[in-house]
Amino acid sequence: MSMELDFSILDTLKTSSQNAPERTKTEPVGKSATNEKNGSEGLLGASEGVSLVSLERDKEDRAKLREEYSRLQDNIKTSGTLRTEIIKGARAGESITTLFLSAVKCISLMTGDTVFSRQIEDDVRAIYGEGLLEPEPLQLQLHEVEERLGKLQHSLTRAGIAPEDRQRIQNAVQAHQRKREELLGLLKTE
Fold first, then answer.
1. Ranges of each domain in the chain
2. By CB distance 3.0 to 4.6 Å, which of 42, 68, 99, 127 could disulfide with 131?
3. How far is CA 92 from CA 4, 103, 159, in A?
């Protein structure tokens, strides 16, 4: 089974940058080209030449194209790593929930649809974890809650936190502690 990546965004960015006029490094802005109808008429006037705005827009378009290309390359690399992990995990007898969530993340990276992965993860936790009380999704959720709780508790040790921010962080710590206790209770009932 082969998956194809959608590079349509690159085509639109490439088209917009190709439509922008080019100039050489030695030509002054606004006087970059000779009149195409009659080369003997001399240089174009500043009002007819390339404006700074269009040059800046072209530069921004090229930067966006580079960023998008870089992001797509990172996604391809990460999805390749995930595919390898899925194969190794299946051979090692890893849980079907973990394999499924890895596959969903891989699909999300390949398609560029980040909402897809997040939605599936949330649904698996809610339906199979808290709804059906299956231990694997509950364990995954507990691990995430404990990880965030540790980061929140660590952030309270930093100096220079404003009092109102410190109170928000303390409230988040308490909420995560309650969620952890709730998940531990659900795991014990199973």
1. 9-14+50-112, 135-190
2. 127
3. 28, 16, 45
* Structural tokens at position 45: 């006037």
Query: What is the helix (H) or strand (E) element at residue 91, kind and residue range?
Result: helix 52-92
Distance from the Cα of residue 26 to its chain's centroid: 39
pLDDT digit string (tens) for 83-123?
999 999 999 999 999 999 999 999 999 998 989 999 999 99
* Residues in CB range of 122: below 8 A, 6 or more apart: none
